[in-house]
Write a structure and sequence with these properties.
Elements (H helix, E strand, L loop, with lengths): L1 H9 L3 H34 L4 E6 L5 E5 H4 L3 E4 L6 H13 L4 E6 L3 H16 L2 H8 L2 E4 L5 E2 L13 H15 L6 H17 L5 H9 L1 H8 L5 H8 L1 H4 L2 H14 L3 H8 L2 H7 L9 E5 L8 H20 L7 E5 L2 H4 L3 H13 L5 E7 L2 H4 L2 H10 L2 E4 L4 H7 L10 H13 L5 E6 L5 E5 L11 H12 L5 E2 H17 L21 H18 L1
Parallel strand pairs: 3-9, 3-10, 4-7, 4-8, 5-7, 8-9
Antiparallel strand pairs: 1-2, 1-12, 6-13, 10-11, 11-12
Helix pairs in contact: 4-5, 5-23, 7-8, 7-16, 8-13, 9-13, 14-24, 16-18, 18-20, 18-25, 21-22
Length: 531
Protein backbone atom coordinates (compact mmCIF):
# COMPACT_ATOMS: atom_id res chain seq x y z
CA UNK A 1 0.00 0.00 0.00
CA UNK A 2 2.82 2.37 0.89
CA UNK A 3 4.56 1.78 -2.44
CA UNK A 4 1.32 2.36 -4.35
CA UNK A 5 0.64 5.63 -2.51
CA UNK A 6 4.14 6.89 -3.18
CA UNK A 7 4.18 5.75 -6.83
CA UNK A 8 0.63 6.08 -8.24
CA UNK A 9 -1.18 8.41 -5.91
CA UNK A 10 1.60 10.92 -5.18
CA UNK A 11 3.52 10.82 -8.46
CA UNK A 12 0.97 9.37 -10.92
CA UNK A 13 1.21 6.41 -13.19
CA UNK A 14 3.56 7.20 -16.06
CA UNK A 15 2.03 4.61 -18.36
CA UNK A 16 -1.52 5.80 -17.89
CA UNK A 17 -0.43 9.43 -18.13
CA UNK A 18 1.23 8.71 -21.45
CA UNK A 19 -1.89 7.00 -22.75
CA UNK A 20 -4.07 9.90 -21.66
CA UNK A 21 -1.70 12.33 -23.41
CA UNK A 22 -1.88 10.31 -26.62
CA UNK A 23 -5.68 10.25 -26.49
CA UNK A 24 -5.85 13.99 -25.83
CA UNK A 25 -3.39 14.69 -28.66
CA UNK A 26 -5.43 12.54 -31.04
CA UNK A 27 -8.61 14.36 -30.08
CA UNK A 28 -6.90 17.73 -30.58
CA UNK A 29 -5.67 16.69 -34.00
CA UNK A 30 -9.10 15.45 -35.01
CA UNK A 31 -10.58 18.74 -33.88
CA UNK A 32 -7.94 20.71 -35.80
CA UNK A 33 -8.52 18.55 -38.88
CA UNK A 34 -12.27 19.20 -38.74
CA UNK A 35 -11.65 22.92 -38.35
CA UNK A 36 -9.19 22.83 -41.26
CA UNK A 37 -11.77 21.15 -43.48
CA UNK A 38 -14.34 23.77 -42.50
CA UNK A 39 -11.85 26.57 -43.21
CA UNK A 40 -11.12 25.14 -46.67
CA UNK A 41 -14.85 24.86 -47.43
CA UNK A 42 -15.32 28.49 -46.44
CA UNK A 43 -12.37 29.45 -48.65
CA UNK A 44 -13.87 27.61 -51.63
CA UNK A 45 -17.20 29.35 -51.12
CA UNK A 46 -15.48 32.74 -50.98
CA UNK A 47 -13.44 32.07 -54.13
CA UNK A 48 -16.44 30.95 -56.18
CA UNK A 49 -18.79 33.38 -57.83
CA UNK A 50 -19.80 35.02 -61.08
CA UNK A 51 -17.89 33.92 -64.20
CA UNK A 52 -15.91 31.28 -62.31
CA UNK A 53 -13.92 28.42 -63.84
CA UNK A 54 -12.58 25.10 -62.54
CA UNK A 55 -8.91 25.26 -61.62
CA UNK A 56 -8.76 21.76 -60.15
CA UNK A 57 -10.11 19.50 -57.43
CA UNK A 58 -9.43 18.78 -53.77
CA UNK A 59 -8.25 15.36 -52.66
CA UNK A 60 -11.86 14.22 -52.17
CA UNK A 61 -12.87 15.32 -55.68
CA UNK A 62 -14.52 18.59 -54.68
CA UNK A 63 -14.12 21.06 -57.59
CA UNK A 64 -12.14 24.23 -56.97
CA UNK A 65 -13.90 27.07 -58.75
CA UNK A 66 -12.22 30.47 -58.97
CA UNK A 67 -14.17 33.60 -59.89
CA UNK A 68 -12.65 36.06 -62.34
CA UNK A 69 -12.77 38.79 -59.68
CA UNK A 70 -10.26 36.74 -57.63
CA UNK A 71 -7.90 36.16 -60.54
CA UNK A 72 -7.99 39.87 -61.38
CA UNK A 73 -5.57 40.72 -58.57
CA UNK A 74 -1.78 40.85 -58.39
CA UNK A 75 -0.34 37.37 -57.86
CA UNK A 76 2.71 35.11 -57.92
CA UNK A 77 3.03 31.61 -59.36
CA UNK A 78 6.09 29.45 -58.87
CA UNK A 79 7.34 25.87 -59.08
CA UNK A 80 10.19 23.79 -60.43
CA UNK A 81 10.56 22.93 -64.10
CA UNK A 82 8.07 20.29 -65.23
CA UNK A 83 5.84 20.68 -62.16
CA UNK A 84 2.85 21.89 -64.20
CA UNK A 85 3.02 25.69 -64.00
CA UNK A 86 2.44 26.34 -67.69
CA UNK A 87 -0.67 24.16 -67.80
CA UNK A 88 -1.97 25.83 -64.64
CA UNK A 89 -1.41 29.24 -66.21
CA UNK A 90 -3.19 28.08 -69.36
CA UNK A 91 -6.26 27.17 -67.29
CA UNK A 92 -6.20 30.50 -65.49
CA UNK A 93 -5.84 32.55 -68.66
CA UNK A 94 -8.55 30.57 -70.46
CA UNK A 95 -10.91 31.20 -67.57
CA UNK A 96 -9.98 34.88 -67.49
CA UNK A 97 -10.49 35.51 -71.23
CA UNK A 98 -13.66 33.41 -71.57
CA UNK A 99 -15.84 36.53 -71.30
CA UNK A 100 -13.66 38.82 -73.43
CA UNK A 101 -11.30 40.23 -70.80
CA UNK A 102 -7.88 41.41 -71.92
CA UNK A 103 -4.80 39.25 -71.51
CA UNK A 104 -1.15 40.11 -72.13
CA UNK A 105 1.51 37.41 -71.99
CA UNK A 106 5.23 38.22 -71.88
CA UNK A 107 7.08 34.91 -72.08
CA UNK A 108 10.91 34.94 -72.20
CA UNK A 109 11.10 31.16 -72.52
CA UNK A 110 8.21 30.44 -74.91
CA UNK A 111 6.60 27.43 -73.22
CA UNK A 112 3.36 29.07 -72.08
CA UNK A 113 3.21 30.94 -75.39
CA UNK A 114 3.35 27.62 -77.26
CA UNK A 115 0.47 26.19 -75.22
CA UNK A 116 -1.64 29.27 -75.92
CA UNK A 117 -0.70 29.22 -79.62
CA UNK A 118 -1.64 25.57 -80.11
CA UNK A 119 -4.93 26.06 -78.27
CA UNK A 120 -5.75 29.17 -80.32
CA UNK A 121 -4.98 27.39 -83.60
CA UNK A 122 -7.15 24.42 -82.62
CA UNK A 123 -10.02 26.76 -81.73
CA UNK A 124 -9.59 28.53 -85.08
CA UNK A 125 -9.67 25.23 -86.97
CA UNK A 126 -12.84 24.12 -85.17
CA UNK A 127 -14.81 27.26 -86.12
CA UNK A 128 -16.99 27.65 -89.22
CA UNK A 129 -15.26 29.52 -92.03
CA UNK A 130 -17.33 32.67 -91.56
CA UNK A 131 -16.30 33.02 -87.88
CA UNK A 132 -12.56 32.53 -88.22
CA UNK A 133 -11.58 36.08 -89.15
CA UNK A 134 -13.36 37.57 -86.14
CA UNK A 135 -11.65 35.03 -83.86
CA UNK A 136 -8.17 35.74 -85.27
CA UNK A 137 -8.71 39.49 -84.86
CA UNK A 138 -8.81 38.99 -81.10
CA UNK A 139 -5.06 38.22 -81.06
CA UNK A 140 -1.97 40.35 -81.23
CA UNK A 141 1.20 38.28 -81.48
CA UNK A 142 4.80 39.28 -80.76
CA UNK A 143 7.14 36.76 -82.32
CA UNK A 144 9.91 36.13 -84.86
CA UNK A 145 9.85 33.63 -87.70
CA UNK A 146 12.22 32.96 -90.58
CA UNK A 147 10.50 35.61 -92.72
CA UNK A 148 8.44 37.80 -90.40
CA UNK A 149 8.87 39.82 -87.23
CA UNK A 150 6.53 41.80 -85.02
CA UNK A 151 7.76 45.40 -84.96
CA UNK A 152 8.34 46.65 -81.43
CA UNK A 153 7.76 50.38 -82.13
CA UNK A 154 10.41 51.31 -79.58
CA UNK A 155 10.54 55.04 -80.25
CA UNK A 156 6.92 56.24 -80.01
CA UNK A 157 6.29 58.27 -76.86
CA UNK A 158 2.87 57.72 -75.27
CA UNK A 159 0.91 60.79 -74.29
CA UNK A 160 1.85 61.96 -70.81
CA UNK A 161 5.21 60.18 -70.72
CA UNK A 162 8.52 61.99 -70.74
CA UNK A 163 10.75 61.17 -73.74
CA UNK A 164 13.70 61.08 -71.34
CA UNK A 165 11.98 58.44 -69.19
CA UNK A 166 11.33 56.30 -72.27
CA UNK A 167 14.98 56.67 -73.35
CA UNK A 168 16.13 55.68 -69.84
CA UNK A 169 14.03 52.52 -69.83
CA UNK A 170 15.03 51.52 -73.36
CA UNK A 171 18.69 51.99 -72.44
CA UNK A 172 18.21 49.81 -69.34
CA UNK A 173 16.78 47.03 -71.52
CA UNK A 174 19.83 47.17 -73.80
CA UNK A 175 22.23 47.11 -70.85
CA UNK A 176 20.54 43.92 -69.67
CA UNK A 177 21.00 42.33 -73.08
CA UNK A 178 24.72 42.94 -73.36
CA UNK A 179 27.29 40.66 -71.78
CA UNK A 180 29.52 43.72 -71.53
CA UNK A 181 29.59 45.65 -68.24
CA UNK A 182 28.33 49.12 -69.15
CA UNK A 183 30.08 52.04 -67.50
CA UNK A 184 28.08 55.10 -66.47
CA UNK A 185 29.53 56.97 -69.43
CA UNK A 186 28.46 54.26 -71.88
CA UNK A 187 24.95 54.18 -70.41
CA UNK A 188 24.79 57.97 -70.72
CA UNK A 189 25.88 57.83 -74.36
CA UNK A 190 23.23 55.25 -75.25
CA UNK A 191 20.63 57.35 -73.41
CA UNK A 192 21.60 60.37 -75.54
CA UNK A 193 21.39 58.39 -78.78
CA UNK A 194 17.96 57.07 -77.87
CA UNK A 195 16.79 60.52 -76.82
CA UNK A 196 17.79 61.86 -80.23
CA UNK A 197 15.99 59.03 -82.04
CA UNK A 198 12.83 59.71 -80.01
CA UNK A 199 13.01 63.46 -80.56
CA UNK A 200 13.49 63.14 -84.32
CA UNK A 201 11.12 60.21 -84.78
CA UNK A 202 13.90 58.00 -86.15
CA UNK A 203 14.96 54.42 -85.61
CA UNK A 204 18.44 53.36 -84.44
CA UNK A 205 20.87 51.53 -86.73
CA UNK A 206 24.58 50.78 -86.63
CA UNK A 207 25.29 53.43 -89.28
CA UNK A 208 23.32 56.07 -87.40
CA UNK A 209 25.02 55.12 -84.11
CA UNK A 210 28.44 55.29 -85.77
CA UNK A 211 27.72 58.69 -87.30
CA UNK A 212 26.28 60.04 -84.05
CA UNK A 213 29.24 59.08 -81.90
CA UNK A 214 32.12 59.51 -84.37
CA UNK A 215 31.08 62.25 -86.83
CA UNK A 216 30.92 65.77 -85.41
CA UNK A 217 29.49 67.17 -88.66
CA UNK A 218 26.59 64.72 -88.45
CA UNK A 219 25.88 65.75 -84.85
CA UNK A 220 25.94 69.44 -85.77
CA UNK A 221 23.46 68.83 -88.57
CA UNK A 222 20.93 66.83 -86.57
CA UNK A 223 21.36 69.04 -83.50
CA UNK A 224 19.69 71.91 -85.35
CA UNK A 225 16.55 69.77 -85.77
CA UNK A 226 16.18 68.77 -82.11
CA UNK A 227 13.18 70.28 -80.34
CA UNK A 228 14.52 69.74 -76.80
CA UNK A 229 16.99 72.53 -75.98
CA UNK A 230 18.74 70.62 -73.20
CA UNK A 231 19.17 67.61 -75.46
CA UNK A 232 20.52 69.86 -78.21
CA UNK A 233 23.11 71.27 -75.80
CA UNK A 234 24.15 67.78 -74.68
CA UNK A 235 24.60 66.65 -78.28
CA UNK A 236 26.60 69.74 -79.24
CA UNK A 237 28.97 69.12 -76.31
CA UNK A 238 29.17 65.35 -76.68
CA UNK A 239 32.92 65.27 -77.22
CA UNK A 240 33.54 67.06 -73.92
CA UNK A 241 31.47 64.58 -71.91
CA UNK A 242 32.23 61.31 -73.70
CA UNK A 243 35.85 60.39 -74.45
CA UNK A 244 36.57 58.98 -77.89
CA UNK A 245 37.41 55.59 -76.40
CA UNK A 246 33.97 55.40 -74.77
CA UNK A 247 32.22 56.45 -77.96
CA UNK A 248 34.02 53.76 -79.95
CA UNK A 249 33.14 51.17 -77.29
CA UNK A 250 29.44 52.09 -77.64
CA UNK A 251 29.62 51.70 -81.43
CA UNK A 252 31.18 48.24 -80.98
CA UNK A 253 28.28 47.31 -78.70
CA UNK A 254 25.77 48.34 -81.36
CA UNK A 255 27.65 46.23 -83.91
CA UNK A 256 26.94 43.26 -81.64
CA UNK A 257 23.46 44.36 -80.58
CA UNK A 258 22.16 44.77 -84.12
CA UNK A 259 23.91 41.77 -85.69
CA UNK A 260 20.68 39.80 -86.21
CA UNK A 261 17.90 40.69 -88.65
CA UNK A 262 15.14 40.87 -85.98
CA UNK A 263 17.28 43.28 -83.96
CA UNK A 264 17.96 45.51 -86.96
CA UNK A 265 14.24 45.64 -87.73
CA UNK A 266 13.09 46.19 -84.14
CA UNK A 267 15.54 49.00 -83.45
CA UNK A 268 15.76 50.46 -86.95
CA UNK A 269 12.10 51.08 -87.72
CA UNK A 270 10.86 54.56 -87.01
CA UNK A 271 7.31 55.01 -85.62
CA UNK A 272 6.15 56.21 -89.04
CA UNK A 273 7.62 53.16 -90.83
CA UNK A 274 5.99 50.83 -88.31
CA UNK A 275 2.55 52.34 -88.91
CA UNK A 276 2.97 52.07 -92.67
CA UNK A 277 4.20 48.47 -92.70
CA UNK A 278 1.78 46.89 -90.24
CA UNK A 279 -1.24 45.18 -91.81
CA UNK A 280 -4.55 47.00 -91.39
CA UNK A 281 -6.67 45.58 -88.58
CA UNK A 282 -10.34 45.67 -87.75
CA UNK A 283 -11.34 45.21 -84.12
CA UNK A 284 -8.83 46.02 -81.39
CA UNK A 285 -7.14 42.81 -80.13
CA UNK A 286 -7.93 41.68 -76.58
CA UNK A 287 -5.33 38.89 -76.28
CA UNK A 288 -1.65 39.73 -76.68
CA UNK A 289 0.76 36.79 -76.81
CA UNK A 290 4.47 37.55 -76.68
CA UNK A 291 7.02 34.85 -77.44
CA UNK A 292 10.44 36.13 -76.42
CA UNK A 293 12.18 32.80 -76.21
CA UNK A 294 15.43 32.33 -78.15
CA UNK A 295 15.09 31.13 -81.74
CA UNK A 296 17.54 30.58 -84.62
CA UNK A 297 16.65 34.12 -85.77
CA UNK A 298 16.79 35.72 -82.30
CA UNK A 299 19.69 35.06 -79.91
CA UNK A 300 18.93 34.72 -76.18
CA UNK A 301 20.29 38.14 -75.21
CA UNK A 302 18.16 39.93 -77.82
CA UNK A 303 15.11 37.91 -76.77
CA UNK A 304 15.49 39.06 -73.17
CA UNK A 305 15.91 42.68 -74.22
CA UNK A 306 12.77 42.56 -76.37
CA UNK A 307 10.81 40.96 -73.52
CA UNK A 308 11.91 43.80 -71.24
CA UNK A 309 10.90 46.39 -73.83
CA UNK A 310 7.51 44.73 -74.19
CA UNK A 311 6.98 44.92 -70.42
CA UNK A 312 7.80 48.62 -70.51
CA UNK A 313 5.26 49.17 -73.30
CA UNK A 314 2.45 47.30 -71.53
CA UNK A 315 2.88 49.26 -68.31
CA UNK A 316 2.98 52.52 -70.23
CA UNK A 317 -0.10 51.65 -72.30
CA UNK A 318 -2.04 50.87 -69.11
CA UNK A 319 -1.21 54.28 -67.71
CA UNK A 320 -2.68 56.24 -70.63
CA UNK A 321 -6.04 54.49 -70.62
CA UNK A 322 -8.93 56.93 -70.23
CA UNK A 323 -10.76 54.45 -68.00
CA UNK A 324 -10.19 51.22 -66.09
CA UNK A 325 -10.12 48.11 -68.30
CA UNK A 326 -9.71 44.65 -66.70
CA UNK A 327 -6.44 43.21 -68.00
CA UNK A 328 -4.25 40.38 -66.79
CA UNK A 329 -0.52 40.84 -67.40
CA UNK A 330 1.23 37.48 -67.17
CA UNK A 331 5.00 37.76 -66.77
CA UNK A 332 6.76 34.43 -67.25
CA UNK A 333 10.29 34.15 -65.81
CA UNK A 334 9.94 37.54 -64.18
CA UNK A 335 13.48 37.31 -62.80
CA UNK A 336 14.78 37.78 -66.35
CA UNK A 337 12.83 41.03 -66.69
CA UNK A 338 13.75 42.81 -63.45
CA UNK A 339 17.53 42.51 -63.31
CA UNK A 340 17.94 46.16 -64.27
CA UNK A 341 17.03 48.40 -61.28
CA UNK A 342 15.22 50.95 -63.47
CA UNK A 343 12.93 48.27 -64.95
CA UNK A 344 12.36 46.64 -61.54
CA UNK A 345 11.37 49.99 -60.06
CA UNK A 346 9.03 50.64 -62.96
CA UNK A 347 7.30 47.28 -62.44
CA UNK A 348 7.00 47.72 -58.67
CA UNK A 349 5.53 51.19 -58.95
CA UNK A 350 3.09 49.88 -61.54
CA UNK A 351 2.02 47.08 -59.20
CA UNK A 352 1.26 49.69 -56.54
CA UNK A 353 -0.44 52.29 -58.71
CA UNK A 354 -1.98 50.76 -61.83
CA UNK A 355 -4.68 48.66 -60.17
CA UNK A 356 -7.02 51.63 -60.56
CA UNK A 357 -6.54 51.27 -64.32
CA UNK A 358 -7.66 47.63 -64.14
CA UNK A 359 -4.20 46.06 -64.60
CA UNK A 360 -3.47 42.88 -62.62
CA UNK A 361 0.09 41.53 -62.71
CA UNK A 362 0.86 37.83 -62.30
CA UNK A 363 4.59 37.15 -61.83
CA UNK A 364 5.88 33.65 -62.59
CA UNK A 365 9.24 32.06 -61.74
CA UNK A 366 10.77 28.62 -61.22
CA UNK A 367 12.92 29.61 -58.26
CA UNK A 368 11.89 33.14 -57.21
CA UNK A 369 14.03 33.30 -54.07
CA UNK A 370 17.17 32.98 -56.22
CA UNK A 371 15.98 34.40 -59.56
CA UNK A 372 14.56 37.72 -58.35
CA UNK A 373 16.54 40.42 -56.51
CA UNK A 374 15.69 40.36 -52.80
CA UNK A 375 14.09 43.80 -52.48
CA UNK A 376 12.06 43.31 -55.66
CA UNK A 377 10.91 39.88 -54.50
CA UNK A 378 9.79 41.21 -51.11
CA UNK A 379 7.72 43.94 -52.75
CA UNK A 380 6.15 41.53 -55.26
CA UNK A 381 5.16 39.14 -52.47
CA UNK A 382 3.62 41.92 -50.41
CA UNK A 383 1.62 43.21 -53.39
CA UNK A 384 0.36 39.74 -54.39
CA UNK A 385 -3.19 38.87 -53.33
CA UNK A 386 -3.11 35.22 -54.42
CA UNK A 387 -0.38 32.61 -54.74
CA UNK A 388 -0.17 29.35 -56.67
CA UNK A 389 2.76 27.09 -55.80
CA UNK A 390 3.80 23.83 -57.41
CA UNK A 391 6.77 21.69 -56.32
CA UNK A 392 9.28 24.11 -54.79
CA UNK A 393 12.08 24.63 -52.30
CA UNK A 394 12.05 25.43 -48.60
CA UNK A 395 12.11 29.23 -48.84
CA UNK A 396 9.10 29.39 -51.15
CA UNK A 397 7.20 26.80 -49.09
CA UNK A 398 7.60 28.91 -45.95
CA UNK A 399 5.86 31.83 -47.69
CA UNK A 400 2.73 29.66 -47.84
CA UNK A 401 2.84 28.11 -44.38
CA UNK A 402 1.20 31.01 -42.47
CA UNK A 403 -1.87 30.62 -44.72
CA UNK A 404 -2.22 26.84 -44.21
CA UNK A 405 -4.42 25.40 -41.43
CA UNK A 406 -2.37 23.68 -38.71
CA UNK A 407 -2.66 19.99 -37.84
CA UNK A 408 -2.13 20.31 -34.07
CA UNK A 409 1.61 19.65 -34.21
CA UNK A 410 4.40 21.82 -32.88
CA UNK A 411 5.56 24.75 -35.00
CA UNK A 412 8.82 23.04 -35.91
CA UNK A 413 7.01 19.84 -36.90
CA UNK A 414 4.51 21.76 -39.02
CA UNK A 415 7.36 23.57 -40.77
CA UNK A 416 9.36 20.41 -41.39
CA UNK A 417 6.42 18.40 -42.73
CA UNK A 418 5.10 21.18 -44.96
CA UNK A 419 8.46 21.99 -46.55
CA UNK A 420 9.01 18.27 -47.14
CA UNK A 421 5.56 18.03 -48.74
CA UNK A 422 6.20 20.95 -51.11
CA UNK A 423 9.61 19.57 -52.11
CA UNK A 424 8.00 16.29 -53.22
CA UNK A 425 4.65 17.54 -54.50
CA UNK A 426 3.55 15.33 -57.43
CA UNK A 427 3.27 16.82 -60.90
CA UNK A 428 -0.10 18.49 -61.47
CA UNK A 429 -0.59 19.18 -57.75
CA UNK A 430 -0.26 22.62 -56.19
CA UNK A 431 -1.17 24.78 -53.21
CA UNK A 432 -3.46 27.77 -53.77
CA UNK A 433 -3.61 30.68 -51.35
CA UNK A 434 -5.77 33.76 -51.43
CA UNK A 435 -4.57 36.04 -48.66
CA UNK A 436 -7.17 36.32 -45.92
CA UNK A 437 -8.45 32.80 -46.59
CA UNK A 438 -7.14 29.34 -45.69
CA UNK A 439 -4.87 27.89 -48.35
CA UNK A 440 -5.38 24.38 -49.69
CA UNK A 441 -3.80 21.67 -51.79
CA UNK A 442 -5.40 20.83 -55.12
CA UNK A 443 -4.92 18.73 -58.19
CA UNK A 444 -4.84 20.87 -61.30
CA UNK A 445 -7.55 20.12 -63.84
CA UNK A 446 -6.50 18.25 -66.96
CA UNK A 447 -5.72 20.33 -70.03
CA UNK A 448 -6.80 19.01 -73.41
CA UNK A 449 -3.96 18.32 -75.82
CA UNK A 450 -5.00 19.95 -79.13
CA UNK A 451 -2.49 17.81 -81.04
CA UNK A 452 -4.80 14.84 -80.48
CA UNK A 453 -7.36 16.51 -82.73
CA UNK A 454 -5.02 18.09 -85.29
CA UNK A 455 -1.39 17.41 -86.26
CA UNK A 456 1.06 19.67 -84.44
CA UNK A 457 2.61 20.93 -87.70
CA UNK A 458 -0.82 21.93 -88.99
CA UNK A 459 -1.62 23.86 -85.80
CA UNK A 460 1.70 25.73 -85.88
CA UNK A 461 1.19 26.61 -89.55
CA UNK A 462 -2.36 27.78 -88.84
CA UNK A 463 -1.26 29.95 -85.96
CA UNK A 464 1.60 31.51 -87.89
CA UNK A 465 -0.24 32.17 -91.15
CA UNK A 466 -3.81 32.86 -89.97
CA UNK A 467 -3.37 34.48 -86.55
CA UNK A 468 0.19 35.71 -85.96
CA UNK A 469 0.68 37.11 -89.48
CA UNK A 470 -1.89 39.83 -88.75
CA UNK A 471 0.57 41.38 -86.26
CA UNK A 472 3.80 40.87 -88.20
CA UNK A 473 5.67 42.37 -91.12
CA UNK A 474 8.09 40.91 -93.65
CA UNK A 475 11.57 41.34 -92.23
CA UNK A 476 13.35 41.87 -95.57
CA UNK A 477 10.87 44.53 -96.64
CA UNK A 478 11.38 46.32 -93.34
CA UNK A 479 15.16 46.15 -93.70
CA UNK A 480 14.92 47.67 -97.18
CA UNK A 481 12.90 50.58 -95.76
CA UNK A 482 15.49 51.10 -93.06
CA UNK A 483 18.33 51.06 -95.62
CA UNK A 484 16.57 53.73 -97.68
CA UNK A 485 16.19 55.88 -94.59
CA UNK A 486 19.88 55.44 -93.72
CA UNK A 487 20.81 56.57 -97.24
CA UNK A 488 18.62 59.66 -96.87
CA UNK A 489 20.13 60.64 -93.53
CA UNK A 490 23.79 59.74 -94.06
CA UNK A 491 24.52 59.76 -97.78
CA UNK A 492 22.08 62.48 -98.92
CA UNK A 493 22.67 64.41 -95.68
CA UNK A 494 18.98 65.10 -95.19
CA UNK A 495 17.54 65.40 -91.68
CA UNK A 496 13.87 64.46 -91.54
CA UNK A 497 12.09 65.41 -88.34
CA UNK A 498 9.48 63.57 -86.33
CA UNK A 499 5.87 63.26 -87.42
CA UNK A 500 3.64 65.18 -85.03
CA UNK A 501 1.99 62.05 -83.66
CA UNK A 502 5.20 60.30 -82.60
CA UNK A 503 6.14 62.47 -79.63
CA UNK A 504 4.22 63.70 -76.65
CA UNK A 505 3.82 67.46 -76.44
CA UNK A 506 2.75 67.75 -72.83
CA UNK A 507 3.61 71.04 -71.15
CA UNK A 508 4.62 69.30 -67.92
CA UNK A 509 6.05 65.90 -68.78
CA UNK A 510 7.61 63.95 -65.91
CA UNK A 511 11.36 63.64 -66.25
CA UNK A 512 11.97 60.61 -64.04
CA UNK A 513 10.31 57.43 -62.88
CA UNK A 514 9.47 59.04 -59.53
CA UNK A 515 7.87 62.05 -61.21
CA UNK A 516 5.99 59.82 -63.64
CA UNK A 517 4.36 57.78 -60.90
CA UNK A 518 3.73 60.85 -58.76
CA UNK A 519 1.70 62.19 -61.70
CA UNK A 520 -0.02 58.80 -61.96
CA UNK A 521 -0.92 58.86 -58.25
CA UNK A 522 -2.30 62.38 -58.62
CA UNK A 523 -4.53 61.19 -61.47
CA UNK A 524 -5.73 58.25 -59.39
CA UNK A 525 -6.74 60.55 -56.53
CA UNK A 526 -8.58 62.84 -58.91
CA UNK A 527 -10.46 59.82 -60.24
CA UNK A 528 -11.41 58.77 -56.71
CA UNK A 529 -12.59 62.29 -55.86
CA UNK A 530 -14.70 62.30 -59.01
CA UNK A 531 -16.50 59.18 -57.88
Amino acid sequence: MKDWLLRDWCYGNAGRAYQRARVNESRARSSDAREAVSDVRRALAALDGKESFVLGTLGDGTPVRIASREIGRHAMVWGSSGAGKSYGLHLITEGWTATGRRLTLVDPKGETFLLKALAAAAAYESLPEDQRDAFAERFRVFDVTAERVTPADLWSVPKGMSPSLLATLRAAAVAEQSSHAFSDLMAYGIFLLYSVAIDLGWGVTVKIARAFFLDATFRDRIGKKLTDERLRDSVENLETTLPEQTRKAIVRQFDLLLASLPARVSFGLSPEMTRELLPARGAKPTISLGNFGPTPQRPPALAKAMATNRLIDVLTEANVRPRAVPELLLLEEVGVLVKQPAVAEYLLEASRTLRWKGLSIVCVAQDPSNAIPKETLTALRLNSKWLLAFECGRDEALWLLPHIAGQGRSESEERREFTSLMAKLPTQEAVFVRKGLTGFRLRRADVEDPTRRYPRERLLETFESKIAARSMIRAREAEERIARFEATVIEKRETPGAAKSTTAKETKSPGSIDEFFALLEHGRKLGEDGR
